[in-house]
């Protein structure tokens, strides 16, 4: 269940970063509220994961899931353009996330 909490926390980080973009600087109330709620739940699930995972594992995975997810949302939904070199570094992020998980004893 711990890894599920961490994954959910990371996915909620993607949600709040996306809704923050849609809030247009917190000027659109509904997206602003969605951002705040997603932030709260992201932190709640991260804190649940931290009960059983060390900070040195949980935090980088949480931010990594959020970073890669935000990149994908930006490209797919917001039509962000990334250079091939940027995609290379995104791949390195993914490799790093997988490597941290695979080498963790938890």
UniProtKB/TrEMBL annotation:
Protein's name according to its UniProt entry: Quaternary ammonium compound-resistance protein SugE
Location in the cell: Cell membrane
Molecular function as annotated in GO: transmembrane transporter activity
The organism of origin for this protein: Latilactobacillus fuchuensis
Keyword tags: Cell membrane, Membrane, Transmembrane, Transmembrane helix, Transport
Highest classification ranks of the organism: Bacteria, Bacillati, Bacillota, Bacilli, Lactobacillales
Membrane topology: Multi-pass membrane protein
Pfam families: Multi_Drug_Res
Family affiliation: Belongs to the drug/metabolite transporter (DMT) superfamily. Small multidrug resistance (SMR) (TC 2.A.7.1) family.
Gene encoding the protein: sugE
Transmembrane segments: 33-50, 57-78, 84-103
GO cellular component: plasma membrane
Domain of life: Bacteria
